[in-house]
Amino acid sequence: MKKVVGTFLLAFLAWHVSPAQSNQKMDEFINQLMAKMTVEEKIGQLNLVTGGEATTGTTVSTDVDAKIRNGQIGGIFSMSTPSKIRKTQEIAIKQSRLKIPIIFGMDVIHGYRTVFPIPLGLAATWDMGLIQQSARIAAEEATADGINWAFSPMVDISRDPRWGRISEGAGEDTYLSSKVAEAIVQGFQGDNLAAHNTMMACVKHFALYGAAESGRDYNSTDMSLHRMYNEYLPPYKAAIDAGAGSIMTSFNDINGVPASANKWLMTDVLRKQWGFKGLVVTDYTAVNELTAHGLGDLQQVSALSLNAGVDMDMVGEGFLTTLKKSLDEGKVKLADIDRACRFVLEAKYKLGLFEDPYRYCNDQRAKTVIGSAANHAKAREIAAKSFVLLKNENQILPLKKTGTVAVIGPLANSGANMPGTWSVSAELEKTASLVEGMKAVLGNKVNILTHLGTNLLEDPTYQKHATMFGRTIVRDPRKEEEIIADAVKVAQQSDVVVAALGESSEMSGESSSRSELDIPKNQQNLLKALLSTGKPIVLVLFTGRPLTLTWEDAHVPAILNVWFGGSETGKAVADVLYGDVVPSGKITATFPRNVGQIPIYYAHKNTGRPYGNSGDFEKFKSNYLDVSNSPLYPFGYGLSYTTFAYGEIHLDKNTLDNDGTIQARIDISNTGNYDAEETVQLYIQDLVGSVTRPVKELKGFQKIFLKKGEVRSVKFDIQLKDLKFFNNDLNYVAEPGDFKIYIGPNSRDVKEVSFKLL
């Protein structure tokens, strides 16, 4: 073990106690440490600053080294250079009075150096094992560089694709998002948080951030407690139950009180109802922003935030600069400062930083782990399984590995955009573009031509905003018509055209809300011109959100949604386009026909005048004059190169009591020509309740592999817990009565059967 300097650290080592041992040992250690701390040093532990190596906000921390020496910093994030991390930790250990180690955080959202698909794409795999593996690899890589705290998973439910950060979560569904949250926490934290290759997860954004009004980032959120408890809060609770060590506040207000000052949320719900024992940290300058919300000056809002139950202030330094004054004036209590300080110190203890503050800095491990061939192979596998085949008319796909393909579009040759939004540690200059990836896979079997096709966006200012953080896409200064005409000439030389269109990576993510969700008009014009050539057209769609693809669905014969697949996007796309991998992804957020349908989600309530989904307008029913209620692509939808047939549902009994189980069985047949995976989805509807209930809710799924011609019986066990919900009194109950079970390949195309809860 490396030599650790400091009285408390030496005493700690003398006990021969690992950080994973009993709470009693941890309490004894922290009690002794806090007894030696001044009030100023305790407040210093509540200060989280930025190292500035990744841009995740507008404020830059200053005088960091001096503040560490003075015991005024508890943690640093966005520092990823191992030598800087070690040097910074040495300042804390060798030059501060109490030698308390620093915790180092980073936005490790969907990978570190090896980048996996954006979270919305990861969720589309419906494979919790792969999702957990992606987080495990991210933790292995990030910890080798000295980082021990990941600001992930983001578990916000979102049913409004105008909100750019829908790309960072698992979509619209409560059940699926909860399962994804559990998998990511387990991947980051493993079985031992003090191990050198695990890191503390941070669940965000608590709470309801994905329901921001009008899909505009940082906007207000307003909803009933009934909806909150049944639909939006469960994924946070699932992540906490999985052992997440920390949670991050959201920017929005809840019941009129911003999250970072909301005592009901942070103390009553999180601490008292859920029993959370971990660290609560704000989002970037969220305490300072309480002033703009109208809650007072920096001293007032800092006191409000601490009193609400927040432990750590990210970047704004309101805690650092005002809490001592508020304590002297009686506006905060020492007990609350102690509480917050204790949670910060406990996080460091659990991570093993008091035992060895340098345990996460290992140059040798970094050389062998970060960006390894095995990690990239796994990234390629996961990316391919995240892609969703939305349309495949006349079985255009898979393509044959012969002839000439023209890869045309602004996303064809931009490696920097392949990792997707919130890939702050990606090595953009080393990431292959779509064309480069295809060439690597296909070699000289297929002749690949390429062309920009059109600019990403017609408006150069809009394009500048959409290609920030090094994600630049070259612009052609000529008129749109000239660029497209050149592209058509290239297309005419090919046997098939791959149109690489859609969003750039920074058109989704934080502060990337959109009021229109079409493919940009100039890209659609390119697509029309390519179709006019008569060549087979495959739209390879890049997007961080559901888009409105009504025209594309009606006119383009094949559409493969590849989200942003991470480091190995290009190779993975080639794998799927040419049939080495059969697509198996299924969307986890409904695709609307137009923006006017938003919010749109499958688990909606019936009205007293429900629309019959005939497709025709019905007067005095809950429908639109100008568009069907139905989405373009329903939740859970995704095609394959093969076909699957679903038999009828068979129940082993028709009634369920409180202690029993009903088993639902259905036969699934692979009736096509390819061995492939299928995600079988189970939904349940509560037909009569004390409150209105959704038309169906996802309650289970199984991803199975079937060889062509194979038939498999898939079984689901349904128990009382699957029928429970929060009633009007917020009691978690299952009410006797009639229920329906639906099983199918998506939320729309289902078989059904009924049973009764006694």
TrEMBL record:
Segment forming the signal sequence: 1-22
Family annotation (SUPFAM superfamilies): (Trans)glycosidases, Beta-D-glucan exohydrolase, C-terminal domain
Gene Ontology biological-process entries: glucan catabolic process
Pfam families given in the database record: Fn3-like, Glyco_hydro_3, Glyco_hydro_3_C
Superkingdom, taxonomy of origin: Bacteria
Location of this chain's protein in the cell: Periplasm
Keywords of this entry: Glycosidase, Hydrolase, Periplasm, Signal
UniProt main location, coarse: periplasm
Gene3D superfamilies with a match to the protein in the record: Glycoside hydrolase family 3 C-terminal domain, Glycoside hydrolase, family 3, N-terminal domain, Immunoglobulins
SMART domains the UniProt entry points to: Fn3_like
This protein's GO CC annotations: periplasmic space
EC id: 3.2.1.21
Family: Belongs to the glycosyl hydrolase 3 family.
Entry protein name: Periplasmic beta-glucosidase
